[in-house]
Specification:
235 residues; mainly alpha
Length: 235
Amino acid sequence: MNLEMVMQELEALGKERLKKMYLSNGAREPLFGVATGEMKPIFKKTKLNQTLAEQLYATGNYDAMYFAGIIAEPNVMTESDYDRWMDSAYFYMLSDYVVAVTLSEADIAQDVADRWIASGEDLRMSAGWSCYCWLLGSRPDPEFSESKLSKMLELVEHTIHHAPERTKYSMNNFIYTVATSYIPLHDKAVAIAKAVYPVEVKSDKGKSKFLSAADNIQKAVEKGRLGFKRKHVRC
């Protein structure tokens, strides 16, 4: 399939209800409003295809950019490629659920995520923390440095309340993910979750939302989900 054929299929799958929902979450035109699950049949036709993924991502169409993440070849992409994708990721559904997800399947994931976390830019920081969440939730514990993750937890503890708004969500989720998916630091993550509670996040409209990693960790414990690892990150 070529770019035009994929765009035609995506447009045919668009739904006005989903389009409005994506727009309310920060997406902008152009977009069709395609449910992510509806993209799977197209993927069966395209398979992984980095060239096509680049063409789709460059359209600026939200649905096309999302599908680009599904068909991208993570280890073909370089650090500069991921930086370029982040430059075009204008809201969190692209930074955290397209770019960070794609990066999490690459061998260079931690190196790039570390750099983004240190960048001081909200969406890059959010993507960096989110990437670690995807990594921890899918890769075996021995692939990680316990001391490094421990220091990252301490960084969250000391900075989350002063972090940019979107980054707060990802940092909070990092605490939760360490507690549920990286057993060696479960107790420390629980203690930090309680220490930072509540995490206040303000919306563009000035309304506040309060996050609690501790509550979500407790729910995971009750459901017997400690040690959870997903088989696939991308759909």
